[in-house]
Design goal:
single chain; mainly beta; seven-stranded antiparallel beta sheet; two-stranded antiparallel sheet; 1 helix
Length: 171
């Protein structure tokens, strides 16, 4: 009886130890979009990349109308510029910022916020906003299963998410 107990204990310990060596599944892996603009300014967006997985944006998937969204998953998305720029004509000093979105029925508000080091949008404070711009989300036929940012060398920043695409200019 004692040997059976020891055998079961040894087998269980082996399973537990081997199970701990498997990498954790990251359902929203980290991603980066970066570009160097013509004047040498580097623009970088760091985010986690959620997937739609059959859900409906605005119903059971962010962004939800009227609620600030981290514009990604996990940690808040960051927006960093190496030099002062203009975002849709509004001044933004060089630095690293939190990047959030507030969706509405016909327009979304892109928010650049002083606080970038936070989990999600749980600590978001409107008083910390550096700038806000309004963008019109376009519905596209080429559905983006994973949230994807892109930055072109001429400063067009785009966010593709599900059937939505938004763009804004950084100069």
């Amino acid at each position: 009886m004692k040997s059976i107990f020891l055998l079961v204990l040894a087998f269980s310990t082996t399973l537990i130890v081997n199970g701990q060596n498997e990498p954790a599944k990251n359902f929203s892996p980290p991603a980066t979009a970066t570009a160097t603009l013509a004047n040498g300014t580097v623009v970088t967006i760091n985010y986690s990349q959620p997937s739609v997985k059959g859900r409906t944006i605005g119903k059971n998937l962010e962004p939800l109308e009227g609620r600030v969204w981290r514009a990604g998953a996990n940690q808040a998305t960051t927006f960093e510029v190496s030099e002062a720029v203009k975002v849709e004509g509004k001044e933004l000093p060089a630095g690293k910022y939190g990047f959030f979105i507030l969706s509405g029925a016909d327009e979304w508000t892109v928010i650049i916020n002083k606080t970038w080091d936070q989990w999600g949008a749980f600590s978001y404070k409107e008083a910390e906003d550096v700038l806000r711009i309004k963008v019109a989300p376009a519905k596209v036929s080429d559905v983006a299963e994973k949230l994807t940012y892109a930055i072109s060398a001429d400063g067009v920043v785009s966010l593709a998410w599900g059937e939505y695409l938004i763009k804004f200019n950084v100069k």
